[in-house]
């Protein structure tokens, strides 16, 4: 510490006339040089540094303000998009429910119309079967009647001779005459 004090004293009592030289004593010159440089920097650099810091502060504040505005706009657009999404989802659900209802309705209508068509076809089938049965029965009756008639005619022709034939005709005419008298 003594050297530092001696340095300050020697600077004060040092004659200025004479030679110009470098002081190589680091401990004596460094704190003085540093204090002078810092003083000059603070005195002259304070305004520049203050301006730089103010400009930087303004840019940061503007960036924050712009970011907040963009965030507000983004939040607003997000809310609108969410509202549209909810609306579209509700419409989709409604279409889905209506679609399912319509599908069920169409399915029931198709089933009902198919049952009706099947019933009609069953009725047509039964009517056709009944008609064919009646036609077959009528054909069998006609054949049986024809065969019976042919058999009866054959029997009559073989059993009847002329005399028996004339007697049968006379008896029938007599019956018709008696019936006529009763009716009159």
Task: Give structural notes.
- Residues 7-13 have low confidence and may be disordered.
- The termini are far apart.
- It is built from three helices and no strands.
- It has one domain (36-171).
- It has 184 residues and is mainly alpha-helical.
What's a quick, concise take on this entry?
Keywords: ATP synthesis, CF(0), Chloroplast, Hydrogen ion transport, Ion transport, Membrane, Plastid, Thylakoid, Transmembrane, Transmembrane helix, Transport. The protein has 184 residues and is an all-alpha fold.
Radius of gyration: 69 Å
What kind of oligomer do you see? Answer: single chain
The helix/strand series, from N terminus to C terminus, equals: HHH
Number of strands: 0
What's the helix count? Answer: 3
What is the mean pLDDT? Answer: 82
**Helical proportion, percent range:** over 70%
Would you identify the regions where 5 or more consecutive residues have pLDDT less than 50? 7-13
Transmembrane segments: 32-49
Protein name: ATP synthase subunit b, chloroplastic
GO cellular component, one term: proton-transporting ATP synthase complex
Main location: membrane
Keywords, please?
mainly alpha, 184 residues, 3 helices
Topology:
Blueprint: H1 2-13, H2 26-159, H3 162-183
Keywords: ATP synthesis, CF(0), Chloroplast, Hydrogen ion transport, Ion transport, Membrane, Plastid, Thylakoid, Transmembrane, Transmembrane helix, Transport
Transmembrane segments: 32-49
GO cellular component, one term: chloroplast thylakoid membrane
